[in-house]
Amino acid sequence: MENIRNFAILAHIDHGKSTLADRVLEITHAIPERQMRQQFLDRMDLERERGITIKAQTVRIKYRSEDGINYVFNLIDTPGHVDFTYEVSRSLAACEGVLLVVDASQGVEAQTVANAHLAVANNLTVIPVINKIDLPNADPEKVASEVEEALSLPKVDAIYISAKTGQGVEELLKKIIEKIPEPKYDNKAPLKSLIFDSVFDKYRGVIIYTRLFEGQVKPGDRIKLMATKTIHEVEEVGYLLPDPKPNKQLVAGEVGYIIAGIKNLEETKVGDTITLSDNQAREPLPGYKEAKPMVFAGLYPADGELFEGLRTALEKLRLNDPSFVYEPESSNALGFGFRCGFLGLLHMEIIKERLEREYQLELIATAPSVAYRITKTNGQVQELKNPSAMPVSHEIAKLEEPYVLVTVITPPDYIGAIMELCQDRRGTFLNMIYLSQSRVELKYEMPLSEILIDFFDQLKSNSKGYASLDYEHIGYKLTELVKVDILIGGKAVDSLSSVMSKDKAYYRGRRIVEKLKEAIPRQLFEVPIQAAIGAKIICRETVKPLRKDVIAKLYGGDVTRKRKLLEKQKAGKKRMKMLGQVELPQEAFISFLKVDK
Asked: In the chain, what are the domains?
């Protein structure tokens, strides 16, 4: 056990985590040279195309040190985007230490700070790693000083590497052995093992990724999942190399997988504790919070006949990604679909793209919204996930919206533009800290709904790409909000309803109808587009009708012949207006998302 090291790689997005994992696999010869490829641990095509890690990946590596001692490294490569912080938190519970990777050309970013705080909160050993030292504009010494000032990690402990060329990676492996402690273990105590991830295999059922803290487990043992109280017989245990490799048993301190013929992923909750049914542990391991959806949007099939196909696809996808939730809903404009909860906008985009790619679906996504908390006049409290389901105003005693603590790290030149952006988004300034001469940290309290749509794009635009963003949920606050309905052809389109600040309702309503006017194609009849708060219309635009030239076939004669045909056309248009259905393309919903740009 003294030769095992369990650690995760943490970093801000695009600071070189997956490249470092590749070099470690290469140097330790964990993967045959002919099988080696870039981003080896990123299994999805989507991860490779976008160059980001979406799912945390675990691999067991054997390493022989210079003095001839064999070590075992259990490495977890984690995502860097703020939407996937839940993947990071579950990984840290299975480790004794972390490598905190910082880009030598970009310095400390917002997610670097957030990840460092997560590691410290879990009482883990943190090794600062300054990456990309081979770049022409790299300044490793300056970045190491920034790390020391911002995160209180001594500059002398920093390791300077280039994950791309492999420079310094051997020294890093020695540092891992020296600094990260071996796992504490007790093989004689009852089994206590933490579930930190799980995937579904259609032939074998659920594959549990687990870290053993006490006891041991082998095929034939009957295990109990303490949260769901279900009992299963173990079929296979083993290590992830990174492909599963069976072993006779797993013992305390090790990281591996368990297959027990479990068909329902709901039974294997992340953070749950596994024990033996005939020799149970007294209490479970301290777990961590389940991922709580922050953003809600409707997903509808473009063809209504594919509704059952979408239901099946969501069920299968949720087996591999239990962090999103869904429930059926219907819309007057779009028919039957599902209301889905996501961890953030990138998570929503990834799920939608995976559904379209992996299950050959064509989907329409409605505008994202957050979950509001409503206290009714009768004292009942409910969570509002869909703006169209908001009760009438006289039934609402109190309406609260979720707030987040926003951390922005930027060069000092852009402070003014960023502060103006945050205040425009109803942000409350908390503090400003100079991490170094070239890095400033700004903290704001802000409604989650204000950073949903295009806040990140605006932030990058205002800082010429230099600012970075991180946020965490801090609870609900009382605010003055109204529901704005969009009426097309006199009928409210529930999929375009939104809840927003009363101060911004007129401006946003006006921008929405202007954008929709551009997106909705002209029909054979006039189409009015209106924004309304309750029964009050606050703005209107009109899509002019197409006019067929009914008098083109006339080559002369009395004017009354022309007038007769025009009067007949006018009567037909009036009847069409009464019966006509407006065609709403997907572009209308996309323009709704980009209303502030």
From this structure: 4-179 (3.40.50.300), 192-276 (2.40.30.10), 295-368 (3.30.70.870), 373-478 (3.30.70.240), 482-593 (3.30.70.2570)
